[in-house]
Amino acid sequence: MAKCSVCGKGAHFGNNVSHSNRKSSKMWKSNVKSVKVNLSNGGAKKMYVCTSCLKSGLVERA
To answer: What stretches pass through the bilayer (predicted)?
Structure first.
C-alpha cells in the first residue's frame, strides 16, 4: 500500500459493524497520488503524495 512521502499518511484499519452488531474487517485507503515533484536541488522526482499535502502547498509539482 502506498504511503505519503511528506506526512506518512497510509491506510487505516478498523471494523465494519452491521446493524446486528457483527464485525468484519475494513480498510480505509488514503488518497495518495503518484506525482512528479520539484526538489530543492533543481531536479524532479516521482513521489507518492497525499492530496491534502498537495492542496496545502507542502510540495511543488514539476
So the answer is: none
